[in-house]
From TrEMBL:
It is an enzyme of class 2 (transferase). The active site is at K87. The gene is fsa. It catalyses: D-sedoheptulose 7-phosphate + D-glyceraldehyde 3-phosphate = D-erythrose 4-phosphate + beta-D-fructose 6-phosphate. GO terms for molecular function: aldehyde-lyase activity; transaldolase activity. Transmembrane segments: none annotated. Coiled coil: none annotated. Its EC number is 2.2.1.2. It holds the Pfam family TAL_FSA. GO terms for biological process: carbohydrate metabolic process; ketone catabolic process; pentose-phosphate shunt. This is Probable transaldolase.
């Protein structure tokens, strides 16, 4: 299972990268705004800064909602760095743009996916990644993890190569459940990654090992 971090915060990206377990980064316009990154030039520069920190794929989202605009923006983003993945919204023109980029071997991430039918369309359009938003489904009393299971089932039926990127992951149990269900990738905040470290028995055990070592020295 690949671990992506879902942030535009360079310090958090560095922290996850330094652990040696980071496979990539996802961003969106809201995450950029949260870091105070505004304006096309600054946003483009920030994508390059992120690519220079991590080794893997970095999703960069288009703002256009029409096919021509998405292609224009996506091509400019793809030029920035070979780690850039074009993130496209799950709308009709987004599906069309996904096919356009996949035909040209440019990686894509179809985002804002909330149903198995949308995931099927993304796979048909040759998406590299499909991003079902599990936390936002949970927010509206719908089982986000069930969507991961449904997409896994459908993709396995037909050996679709599109990778299921569980997005809108909010906490460690989402990560573990996505791993059980066979999501290819998860993207979440830093706390959902480093939180996996925590167990009181580890802390107690380490404390005892160190105390016993000191007794003998
Ligand atoms: O990757 C999608 C993600 O950024 C959405 O997360 O927590 O805003 O629902 P959230």
């Amino acid at each position: 299972m690949k671990f992506f971090i879902d942030t535009a915060n360079l310090d958090q990206i560095k922290e996850a990268q330094d652990m040696g377990i980071l496979d990539g980064v996802t961003t969106n316009p809201s995450l950029m705004a949260k870091e105070g990154i505004t304006g096309t030039d600054n946003i483009m520069k920030h994508y390059v800064d992120i690519c220079n920190i991590v080794d893997g794929d970095v999703s960069a989202e288009v703002i256009s909602t029409d096919f021509d605009g998405m292609v224009r923006e996506g091509e400019a983003l793809a030029e920035l760095h070979d780690q850039i993945v074009i993130k496209l919204p799950m709308i009709k023109d987004g599906v069309k743009a996904c096919k356009y980029f996949s035909d040209r071997d440019i990686k894509t991430n179809v985002t804002l996916v909330f149903s198995p039918g949308q995931a099927l369309l993304a796979a048909k359009a040759g998406a590299t990644y499909v991003s079902p938003f599990i936390g936002r489904l949970d927010d509206v009393s719908t089982d986000g993890l069930n969507l991961i299971a449904e997409i896994r089932h459908i993709y396995d039926n037909y050996a679709f190569e599109t990778q299921i990127l569980a997005a809108s992951v909010r906490h460690t149990m989402h990560v573990i459940d996505c791993a059980k269900l066979g999501a290819d990738v998860m993207t979440g905040p830093l706390k959902s990654i480093v939180g996996l470290l925590n167990h009181p028995l580890t802390d107690i055990g380490l404390e005892k090992f160190l105390a016993d070592y000191k007794k003998g020295n």
